[in-house]
Amino acid sequence: MSDVSMSQDRAGKVGFVGLGNMGNPMAHNLAAAGFDLVVRDVSADAVDAFVAAHPSTVAASSPADFAGVELVVTMLPNGEVVQDALLGWEGGIGASLPPGAVVIDMSSAKPSDTLRLQEALSDKGIRVIDAPVSGGVPRAVTGELAVMVGGEADDIEKAQPVLRVLGDPERQFRTGRLGSGHAMKALNNYVGGTTYVITAEALAIGKRFGLDTGMMIDIINVSTGRSFNSEMVLAPHVVTGQYSTGFALGLLAKDVHIAATIAEEADVPAPVLAVSDELWAKAATAMDPGADHSLAHQVWYPDDKDLTRGGR
After folding, report:
1. Which domain range does residue 172 map to?
2. Catalytic: which of 13, 110, 158, 185?
3. pTM, two decimal places
4. Residue 185 catalytic?
5. Do 110 and 169 share a structural domain?
6. Which of 4, 74, 263, 311 could join 306 via S-S bond, C-beta 3.0 to 4.6 A?
């Protein structure tokens, strides 16, 4: 308890930009830990609801409300939106931050976007680290997210009071230079997204053969095909027909495409990644990008949309 209090004293006010499915519970955990927050979201309803739950929170009406804030968390859809918040919105939040402030970008973004953001903020003496997360909404709620942190050691250390609240310290990984956290997150989500692709494909094939998809996923989950997706996505959401993971289709498609961009820039042949990128892009184009990502198989296998247990 004393460690937390000391951390809060050092951190002062904390800015939080992005109160979506992930950002809302993350900001809630910071408020519950006793941090004074300044929050910003394009949804006035999201801000109003958060302030109603945490009356000491300041709802930012302009970048000036972030004056004096030394740590700012961004949890936004992509790097372009992060840059708009820090550099574009009425002159940008970055214009109001004091020298030495650290922007903790926990969004999923292209490494190149993060490097451009740091370059733009360097003249003001503002530092950037990238700290994307994995674990989804459930671990955002419990504060047990895995965090992949890229940037300078001193900047990462300054961000620890916030990072220790939002993620499990044993699942915090220092990935290297600025941008490396975003690269790791994209590659992780490529692996996860492609595991979903092949597991859904197996269910569609098995269904045509005459196997029950519920039985299939039960067997996969005690066999060598088991994965996070088979256990946490296909089993509770696809074969039940719930489709409520809380992770948007467009976001996963974006992450897989970032991984494809990294592979291209690194000149690494990645034929499986290319196919996965194509499939997720197809799903995101055919469906609302805000749709739950677990619905994607319905685009790829339109004649076998129903993969529910016992479905036809």
Report:
1. 2-178
2. 185
3. 0.89
4. yes
5. yes
6. 311
